[in-house]
Write the C-alpha cells for this entry.
Amino acid sequence: MYSIKTVNVLGSTMEVFLFRPQGDGPHPAILMAQHIPMGHTGLENDAFTLTTAQRFAENGYVVAVPFIFHWWPKSDPLEKKREESRDDWMVADMQAAFALLKTEPDVDAARIGLVGHCWGGRVAWLAACHLPQLAALATFYGGNIKKALGAGNVPPIELTRFIACPVIGFYGNNDTNPSPQDVADYSAALTTAGIKHTFHQYDGAGHAFQNFPMPERYHKEASDDAWTKLLDFLQQTLAPDAPAS
C-alpha cells in the first residue's frame, strides 16, 4: 500500500509515507500535510490520511505524507504536540519532504501540488509560502492561519504574498475555526497578493466534513462534491500542459 522513507530534519528523523500509482511515470505528485485526529500516535493509525493518500495514488499521483509530529515520542499526548508545535519546524518538515519527493525517479518535479486538511490545511498554506516551486495548493478548512505558532514566527496569512501557485479552498459554513469571516479574510489576503484562487463553501457542513472516520463530522454531500472539484483542480494545474502559475 505504501513505503516509508526517512529524512533528517534539523537533527530529528522524520518518516515520509510514499504512495504510488501504477506505471513507471513520470507522474505528477502531491505533498500531503496530515491532520491530527484524536488518539493520533502515528500515520500507521490514521485511517483518513492513509485512505485519502491512496485515493490520490489511484488517480495517478505519487503522494508523500511526512509525519510532522516526529519531534515528540509517538506516545506523547496530542495536547502537548499542539501546544509545542512551531511554524519553523513545520516549514522545515515540509521542505524536507518536498525535496525527497522531487528526487523520486517516477515523479515529474515540475508537477507537484500540496494538499492539507484541518491542521494540515494550515500547514499546507504555511508551507506553500516557502515552496515557490509548487504548481498547486489545496487547503481544506485550515484554521488559525491568522495566528503564529512558536516564538519568532509570524501568522501564515502575513506570508500569503509568497504563494506562487493557484489555490483552491474548501470550507464548511458551520465551522468556527475557520469561521466564514476567517475564510473571507483568507480570500482577501489572496486577492491582495494577486493570487488566483477559488473557494468553495458548504451550508450544513462544519469542520472536518471530509473526515469519514468521524460520523459526527462527516458530511457526505459536501465531501463528495469537494473531492470531485479537487480532482478537477489538480488535473488542470498538474497536467503536463498546464500553464505556468
Remarks:
- Residues 3-238 form a domain with the Rossmann fold fold (CATH 3.40.50.1820).
- The chain has a mean pLDDT of 95.
- The CA atoms of residues 20 and 62 lie 5 Å apart.
